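Subject: Predicted fold for histidine kinase, 222 residues

User T.R. writes:
Posting the sequence so we have a shared reference for the thread.
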Amino acid sequence: MSAIGSRPNDDVVRSQYLASLDEQSRDWELVLRESHHRMKNTLTLLGASVRRDFTRAGARDVSVAVDRFERRLVAFGRLYQLLSDSDDVSAVDVEAFFENLCAALSEAVLEPAGIRCEAAIESGTLSASQCHRLALMLTELVTNAAKHAFPTRNGALIRIEVAHHDDAWFCTVADNGIGATGPLQGTGSRILEGLARSIHARLQGEAGQGGTRVTIVMPAAA
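User M.O. replies:
I've generated the structure tokens; pasting them so everyone works from the same file.
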């Protein structure tokens, strides 16, 4: 009697297991798409800054431009190291992690484009997975702002804030650029939405003459 009744239960367990594997596969594909998208965008920014430096450089300034290019490559290496999910870490120091991320983003992406970066990061801990997803989303938002918010670079500023209150983490990227004319679109938008769902977060945005501000709101217990 028990053997006959166990088969439906086995089918349910097997179905749940396969559904879990399918969800993990989709989640991994999302991260891979973001990694490819991020590499494409950052290399585009790097290429533009290199062309600008070497076009302006005279014969005596070539060595300076080469040194600057080398520093940017090193900064890109640090950035991608931070964006790599670490399986051997269970908890991450939020303040140290995101200060390092902001420093790498500033040196690799923003400073070459003539954009200042400010950061205000509160202390706390998050899982490695949460930090990784938030870092991917913040990097996407910062890179998007660097590419589109500043047709002229005078006084360009991007501010990154990571704060914790009301049992949630609030991660904000704000710029003083021209202000977005509509919602994020394209591959970057779909990846952001997918990453937000993967950590039970939501995106809030506002734009005006003072610039654009996008906040990721993630439950502390996600």
